[in-house]
Amino acid sequence: MKKLINDPANVIADALHGLAAAHPELRVDFENRVIVRGDAPVRGKVGLVSGGGSGHEPLHGGFVGPGMLDAACAGEVFTSPVPDQMVAATQAVDGGAGVLHIVKNYTGDIMNFELAAEMVAADSGTEVATVVIDDDVAVQDSLYTAGRRGVGATVLVEKIAGAAAEEGRPLAEVAEVAGKVNAYARSMGLALTSCTVPAAGRPTFDLPDDQMEVGIGIHGEPGRRRVPVAPANEIAEMLVSPILTDLDFTGGDGVICFVNGMGATPLIELYVMFHEVNQLLAKNGIPVARSLVGPYITSLDMAGCSVTLLKADDELLRLWDAPVNTPALRRGV
Amino acid sequence: MKKLINDPANVIADALHGLAAAHPELRVDFENRVIVRGDAPVRGKVGLVSGGGSGHEPLHGGFVGPGMLDAACAGEVFTSPVPDQMVAATQAVDGGAGVLHIVKNYTGDIMNFELAAEMVAADSGTEVATVVIDDDVAVQDSLYTAGRRGVGATVLVEKIAGAAAEEGRPLAEVAEVAGKVNAYARSMGLALTSCTVPAAGRPTFDLPDDQMEVGIGIHGEPGRRRVPVAPANEIAEMLVSPILTDLDFTGGDGVICFVNGMGATPLIELYVMFHEVNQLLAKNGIPVARSLVGPYITSLDMAGCSVTLLKADDELLRLWDAPVNTPALRRGV
Amino acid sequence: MEVSDLTAWVQEFARLVALERDELTALDSAIGDGDHGFNMDRGLSAAVAALEASPPESPSALFKTVGMTMISKVGGASGPLYGTAFLRMAASAGSPVDAAGFAQVLHAALEGVVARGKASVGDKTMVDALTPAVEAFDAALASGGDPFQAAADAAEKGREATIPLVARKGRASYLGERSAGHPDPGATSVTLLMRAAATTLGNAG
Amino acid sequence: MEVSDLTAWVQEFARLVALERDELTALDSAIGDGDHGFNMDRGLSAAVAALEASPPESPSALFKTVGMTMISKVGGASGPLYGTAFLRMAASAGSPVDAAGFAQVLHAALEGVVARGKASVGDKTMVDALTPAVEAFDAALASGGDPFQAAADAAEKGREATIPLVARKGRASYLGERSAGHPDPGATSVTLLMRAAATTLGNAG
Ligand SMILES: Nc1ncnc2c1ncn2[C@@H]1O[C@H](COP(=O)(O)OP(=O)(O)O)[C@@H](O)[C@H]1O
Ligand SMILES: Nc1ncnc2c1ncn2[C@@H]1O[C@H](COP(=O)(O)OP(=O)(O)O)[C@@H](O)[C@H]1O
Ligand SMILES: [Mg+2]
Ligand SMILES: [Mg+2]
Ligand SMILES: [Mg+2]
Ligand SMILES: [Mg+2]
Fold first, then answer.
1. Most CB atoms within 10 A, among B7, B288, C110, D170?
2. Which positions fall inside the DhaK domain (chains A, B) (predicted)?
């Protein structure tokens, strides 16, 4: 295992110290592993709390700041944080208007946030609403299963719900906007290589030099199928077509197109992918209204990418364009 | 070779199309492979032109925009662009106040920019000044050699000189600021893995699983020495101490500390590294005034990092903090 | 069973999990995200330490400490599931616990896991090992065998039965058909829980 | 030598470079950045195409087309160096070129490379192959041997002499002591240039 780390047991703690030093505008509660917006709680504003296993950086800690999250909880690598962290985060950002929990749809995340909400309710009475993100079309949705994973849409939800909260809208409305983004977003991912969890010290799965995994999540899980490596235009097809099959993206005000790197894929390749995705969308009569290209929700040192499309309307585009000032996403401020 | 690309021969062209689509605020001259600020030429402002081999993304194209570069020339992977490109870029951004060429100190880059300046002089008479970046302490400086490489300081020069140009300062002053940044900046890099040039299809060098290269540049060149892999704190020491030996960083207004990822190293590891570098600097009585952590000047899919320190004063800090609005660096706008 | 017997049970469970940590993680790598061994080991080490730091006075206090520790130290799916199980055990445990009382405690654990995770038998989760264990304990209690050994054997059988299943709950469900052919990691850790009970409580029971 | 002979020389140079492309790149990978073969091949293919598209009328026009094409298609260090060399050759070439004229052309090429790159013999660059080639050409011309073959042999010897050197110019200089033990890629491409001259002009000369 080749990584720029010390003891694998201390990766999260060390990285949090680095984040805190690089971003004095944020507050880091090292004991609870919670990253908080420097001026939290913001009076009268709905607080946005997210979190999940670490290893997806910049998600979620890199999205804390005005216009996006109020706090993020960092779990162990690929392991949901514990309720204590979520309770601390919720209390730290409660400005009197309630708190929205943005939860990716993983059994662990769901249950831990659920426990946290129960604890907050019993404790302080802060009003908590929850939105669950489940945008991954690689997973078949069904009432009888854990359902779809939450992946790329999380970034879009955090940005857009963050903007809605910044406008002073009430908890129910912010939750509704978040739910709308999730309802209109779909994602699909692909791995060229496995990632290596520091504590494990070896790749999670073995992938021969001529194979790739299609339909992966963000936790180094194997994908839905293994296929021979292919050029970018074929990969774009593999990612975009299940998305377009799942939801009709025509007829809106265009899409927000998000091409995400899994951690070890350089930007130049993501731009190549974005070009291919763009061409496919044009062919399908789907205009790209906005775009985001870069490693925003990663899987440690996995090489690969994911595509997320969000069917947008005027409201979502306006909120997408609103100012945001976080370590990983910044504009208009 | 596992890459998200089509034909290796078209990587640059494809990526430029992706960049253009993702950033409609920029203009891309596909024929000349020049990325230009959308509103160029800006009347009365010194134009900043840089460029170099591709494979270092977001450098340079990702730094085009208000407050930073006016244009960037994209060469073949790891190969200096040709003079025609630099001439086209220079003419596109000439707002009447002259143009600064920001050139990394590589024989090829130097000679091609030199030829371009000669061609511009013969042609349009645009006033051109040149600053050469040579901050890499891994290379011994000497009158009898090609001298040091230009690496991480390039990002800082582009930002700070860009801010000076935005203030409306004349060419000589902008060039002087750029030169000052270069004079007070030092860098050192390390590779955990080799990169793979698309056209070559295999790693540039073979690096066993338990070895790393210290003192690498940004072109997949082997480094100065090969050592066993080590924990982040020892790596920080290997990178920081030659920098501190080379220049006295105490006694200024602190340093701008830039921990850069080489392309395949995830952010979480860069934060771990930044924490270690920070602690070392504190131990040496060097306050960190500002910081930058992320993959900004990369080497394709190489895993590893570099550290750049810039000894800052009030002027440099003010220019560093000035608004900038580019794909890869944005603040205050 | 006194609190000391039950403490020994938890300690033995922790010991077995530490021993099998990499194996549990390997199982989770195949169909999940490769952390189940670390998760359980982290939680149980903390639980054992907490029990040492302030030894509980009653079985109920013991289970509560373990449950709270699992919830606040583990995260992931197994933290809330094992945590809820132990908290429910705390709520249902008398002092001391006799065999019939232990049956009740096991039922409470299973109900906690199901309430929290909403899985049914056949979903390829820890429920697939815990359910037959609880049933076998009841049956052996009624028929006069060693209920602890019966429960351990049944858990192991339940675990084996997860191998051919396509997962419907937890991360393994994302794999669809590819989840078949591997035992469930959580069902595997449950067999360690029941094996620990058989060796520490089976004779004392 | 007529323009057609010199065109054949450039074509043969391009053919040899295409043949040795991966070898040149491998040499550059060892002590540079692994693109010398691609760079030279890209430039020379373009030059050959340009010569075909509009066949030059004079040796001078021929060299100018090659020089301009190298400058505008290659980039890196070799683009301006070979480009400047050919442009200087254009400036010094009469029409037709006799052997003495060719000696002048070679001197001009060397001067161009040195003016542009400021390298001296022993810096481990293409100058280490070009300098002895020029000298050997002069000497053979004076003593009555085949100057083209002499130049090719001398270039090859010069190239071999770069192996033990520690580079002082170009990318290889960044490696310090580690640059020793490998031949210089640019010196290697110069040997192809001179070998092409020997086979295409040596008999015609
Ligand atoms: N809904 C559920 N009900 C019961 N058990 C579950 C459920 N979801 C997951 N599990 C169990 O949790 C185990 C995985 O635990 P662990 O790896 O620690 O957490 P995570 O899946 O969050 O990484 C699975 O093997 C399965 O036995
Ligand atoms: N200053 C110089 N003078 C003469 N030749 C040089 C000089 N610098 C580099 N070279 C030659 O250029 C060759 C490398 O060319 P190439 O790989 O195409 O360019 P780059 O080094 O920009 O990648 C070297 O092997 C060397 O022979
Ligand atoms: Mg997990
Ligand atoms: Mg090169
Ligand atoms: Mg797991
Ligand atoms: Mg080269």
1. D170
2. 7-329
